[in-house]
Write a structure and sequence with these properties.
The complex is a heterodimer of chains A (263) and B (331). Chain A is an all-alpha fold. Chain A contains nine helices and no strands. Classes of the chains: A mainly alpha (263), B mainly alpha (331).
Chain lengths: 263, 331
């Protein structure tokens, strides 16, 4: 139980930083200071400075916005698209089911990161395309899980009962199916949120995601790579930020899944 | 042709359920591969600016562009080029790189092999260790060993491959000085001469896989330990160790096979990042190079090969699983 609260706390801290990062950051994330380049961590610069004398702490703090925003929006849209497709496939009859699930099978037969790379390389690295990419990669998996849950719900008596009393199909879906899928979607959402962080930061690490000069953790890790043996702090602190955020989300997701299976 | 298909159906009807299952899976696999090839071709087709423009650059005159398009066959409709592309690949001709003009086939084969070496080495480390940790954890459920292992695996899963790679470099090369940091710089050295360069990439990939396998093995062992037949085994007086070895492990490790297939996907995905960090000459790096140089034939070939490998791994796992576990064979 403690683990869940720790996870929640980590996620909340990053959420607050993403919203109000500028208020916390002691320096501007673009401010260059050529008399203080490559400074190790000190009281002036908690996480040190990079090769342009920019304050790493400020860049990590403000950089939370890019990944939290990207991962958050992409996950929410994936749940929406995947959830809709899953419900339609599970409830609208055999034909829809076959058609939608075959498409999902094909998309799922790509390793996630490679599919993301393929799509991003064709569309480009605008944030809107990054979001679209993650939705295309995630929605099929979510749709598959939602579909099988919808199928098992649709076979239950309360749905039969609603059907028999003449409740129209759209009302059954909205009032009876979807409310019963919320638990599942919350757990799936937390798992996919952590995947979205991995894919989003991975793409920007490879130079195919968020573009400079936006402060972004993946970009920062990549920037500091050439200094890893001489000025480790440039790359280590944004790396720690990514890992701690993913750890927080994983703890939360584990806890939510546990709670659901206990019910 | 008709006689052949009749003969096939006669054979199909008469063969075992396992045989029918294999045939159905192979047919499904064929369709999946066809769809994958369409998707890869279609995605690359959507890239703005055509190949001729990319080769000749912005200064090219319309006449030279048109001449090159005709020479490369780019003036033909997309569906004809698609069938050309696919039939060439079926014949073993993967096309030529736009950048180096070298044949893509041998290049791809070499990179696939390098990635396979990396992935197999990672699996060889991750599978036994992951199963061992998972079983240890599941048998000591809720004890401190279990909690330690659970935390370790959760921790390992929280590091994206590229972050893991960088931490391992700092830890093992920079601080402990066990391994040469040169693995960062040296790009295309011979694999076997430079086994030490393999250590860091393999370790990076293996840690993630190990965590997946361990978590899976743990939860399936716990499920099995709760089952009726384990209670029977205990109550008929079998020693704990015998009951675990003879009954629990066999059943618990069966589902772990499907994790291996999923892991191939993870290894291929992770490889794209890890190979880039270590400048390791594998498929992932080739794909990134193709993206940055807009080398369309190479990009298409690598993506297709990676998806095909993943599909094959899934097929292999399905067949192995159903062979070992007859109960689920016919679904």
């Amino acid at each position: 139980m403690l683990a869940v609260w720790v996870g929640l706390a980590i996620v909340l801290v990053y959420l607050l930083l993403a919203l109000f990062g500028e208020a916390v950051a002691p320096y501007s994330y673009t401010e260059q200071n050529f008399v203080a380049t490559l400074q190790p961590p000190s009281l002036d610069h908690l996480f040190g400075t990079d090769q342009f004398g920019r304050d790493i702490f400020s860049r990590v703090v403000v950089g939370s916005r890019s990944i939290m925003g990207l991962a958050g929006i992409a996950t929410a849209l994936s749940l929406l698209v995947g959830g809709l497709v899953g419900v339609v496939a599970g409830y609208a009859g055999r034909l829809w089911d076959e058609a939608l699930m075959r498409v999902a099978d094909v998309l799922l037969s790509f390793p996630a990161m490679l599919l993301a790379l393929l799509i991003v390389s064709t569309l480009g690295s605008e944030v809107i395309y990054l979001i679209l990419t993650i939705v295309v990669v995630f929605a099929p998996g979510i749709a598959r899980v939602v579909r099988s849950e919808t199928l098992s719900l649709a076979a239950k008596e309360f749905i039969d009962a609603a059907h028999a009393t003449g409740v129209p199909a759209h009302r059954i879906v909205l009032r009876h199916l979807i409310p019963n899928l919320v638990d599942l979607l919350v757990v799936e959402g937390s798992i996919y949120f952590s995947y979205a962080i991995l894919i989003g930061s991975g793409l920007s690490f490879l130079g195919l995601g968020v573009q400079p000069p936006s402060p972004d953790w993946g970009l920062q890790v990549n920037d500091g790579r050439n200094f890893v043996l001489t000025a480790w702090w440039i790359t280590v602190f944004p790396s720690l930020a990514i890992s701690s955020l993913v750890l927080g989300v994983n703890l939360l997701a584990d806890g939510l899944a546990q709670q659901q299976s206990n019910r | 042709m008709l006689e052949d298909s009749k003969a096939f159906f006669v054979w199909y009807e008469g063969s075992t359920l396992m045989g029918q299952f294999v045939v159905r899976r192979l047919i499904l696999m064929f369709f999946t591969l066809a769809m994958i090839s369409l998707l890869v071709f279609g995605a690359v087709e959507m890239v703005p600016g055509d190949t001729a423009q990319m080769i000749l650059g912005k200064q090219a005159t319309p006449e030279t562009l048109q001449a090159l398009r005709v020479r490369l066959g780019l003036d033909r409709p997309a569906y004809i080029r698609y069938f050309d592309w696919v039939s060439a690949i079926v014949r073993g001709d993967w096309g030529e790189s736009l950048v180096s003009n070298a044949a893509v086939g041998p290049l791809l084969a070499q990179r696939v092999w390098n990635s396979l070496v990396l992935g197999m080495a990672a699996l060889l480390v991750a599978m036994p260790l992951g199963i061992f940790l998972g079983v240890l954890s599941g048998l000591n459920r809720a004890g401190w060993i279990d909690q330690g292992i659970t935390f370790f695996t959760l921790f390992a899963l929280s590091f994206p491959p590229f972050v893991m790679a960088i931490f391992l470099i700092i830890l093992l090369s920079s601080w402990l000085r066990w391994l040469p940091a040169a693995s960062l710089i040296d790009p295309d050295a011979n694999l076997w001469e430079s086994a030490q360069f393999l250590v860091l990439p393999v370790l990076t990939l293996a840690l993630g896989s190990l965590a997946h396998v361990s978590r899976h093995a743990r939860s399936s062992l716990i499920e099995v330990m709760r089952s009726d037949y384990m209670r029977t085994a205990k109550s008929k007086g079998l020693p704990d160790l015998t009951a675990i070895l003879r009954h629990a492990l066999r059943n618990a490790l069966l589902p772990t096979i499907s994790v291996v297939a999923l892991n191939v996907g993870w290894l291929l995905s992770g490889a794209a990042l890890v190979e880039n960090v270590f400048a390791y000459p594998g498929m992932g790096r080739l794909m990134l190079q193709a993206i940055s140089t807009r080398d369309v034939p190479v990009l298409q070939a690598v993506t297709l090969a990676a998806a095909a490998m993943y599909a094959l791994a899934n097929l292999g796992a399905d067949l192995l699983y159903s062979w070992l576990n007859p109960r689920i064979r016919y679904s």
